[in-house]
From TrEMBL:
First-listed, main subcellular location of the protein, grouped into a coarse class: membrane
InterPro entries in the record: PH-like_dom_sf (IPR011993), PH_domain (IPR001849), PH_domain-containing_F (IPR051765), PH_Phafin (IPR037871), PLEKHF2_FYVE (IPR047966), Znf_FYVE (IPR000306), Znf_FYVE-rel (IPR017455), Znf_FYVE_PHD (IPR011011)
Pfam family, any one: PH
GO biological process, one term: protein transport
Membrane topology of the entry: Peripheral membrane protein
Species this protein is from: Sciurus vulgaris (Eurasian red squirrel)
Role description: May play a role in early endosome fusion upstream of RAB5, hence regulating receptor trafficking and fluid-phase transport. Enhances cellular sensitivity to TNF-induced apoptosis.
GO annotations of cellular component type: early endosome membrane; endoplasmic reticulum
Protein name: Pleckstrin homology domain-containing family F member 2
Source superkingdom: Eukaryota
Length: 249
């Protein structure tokens, strides 16, 4: 079906509409063989709070952006090559239901669909696209992925020292290796993570010690590990925007 749609006028028109919705600030999306599989609004678990984002699934990339005017205008376009993507289902937790992780070497995050059926359809289509891409290229699935950041709202104190309380002065930081919310003194070191940045990035002391000794796998927690150590009480929106790769996200 994908091959049949690749050169169809309907597919070309649909992709053109998506390009126009992102405007001049967005990257061109029309290339030979690319097919728009589907689109929809998903809730992305961002650093500060869950936010609605418009997602577009193509046969080779996943595109998402901020919704300015529904079905008419989007901004802050993000493009993720699907051959680097792995996905994992997330158990329902409170108001956050029908979710899964989208993991890549550069960035990983959680998204949530409106219904269980919608979640199943998204995951099935993504997995199918990834499988087809890897089959054609002969590549193996990526086994490296960036940590999923624990949201600011889930940590009232540093998740490493368990002592420092976050205030407007003592701001939150995120370790780029494990995704924990940590205080400044617990994350003063930098380490080069080539898949995430060409420059050394902030990591916590725990991960720095492990990375320095070559024990890289140990400081990559699962999402449940991260959350089990975090407090789930609501708190004021105090965060370090300058320490975020996308302060609005």
């Amino acid at each position: 079906m994908v091959d049949r749609l690749a050169n169809s006028e309907a597919n070309t028109r649909r992709i053109s509409i998506v390009e126009n919705c992102f405007g001049a600030a967005g990257q061109p999306l029309t290339i030979p063989g690319r097919v728009l599989i589907g689109e929809g609004v998903l809730t992305k678990l961002c650093r500060k709070k869950p936010k609605a984002r418009q997602f577009f699934l193509f046969n080779d990339i996943l595109v998402y952006g901020n919704i300015v005017i529904q079905k008419k205008k989007y901004n802050k376009q993000h493009i993720i090559p699907l051959e680097n993507v792995t996905i994992d289902s997330i158990k329902d937790e409170g108001d956050l239901r029908n979710g899964w992780l989208i993991k890549t070497p550069t960035k990983s995050f959680a998204v949530y669909a409106a219904t269980a059926t919608e979640k199943s359809e998204w995951m099935n289509h993504i997995n199918k696209c990834v499988t087809d891409l890897l089959s054609k290229s002969g590549k193996t699935p990526s086994n490296e992925h960036a940590a999923v950041w624990v949201p600011d709202s889930e940590a009232t104190v540093c998740m490493r020292c368990q002592k420092a309380k976050f205030t407007p002065v003592n701001r939150r930081h995120h370790c780029r290796k494990c995704g924990f919310v940590v205080c400044g003194p617990c994350s003063e070191k930098r380490f080069l993570l080539p898949s995430q940045s060409s420059k050394p990035v902030r990591i916590c002391d725990f991960c720095y010690d492990l990375l320095s000794t070559g024990d890289m796998a140990t400081c990559q927690p699962t999402r449940s590990d991260s959350y089990s150590q975090s407090s789930k009480s609501p708190l004021n929106d105090v965060s370090d925007d300058d320490d975020d790769d996308d302060s609005s996200d």
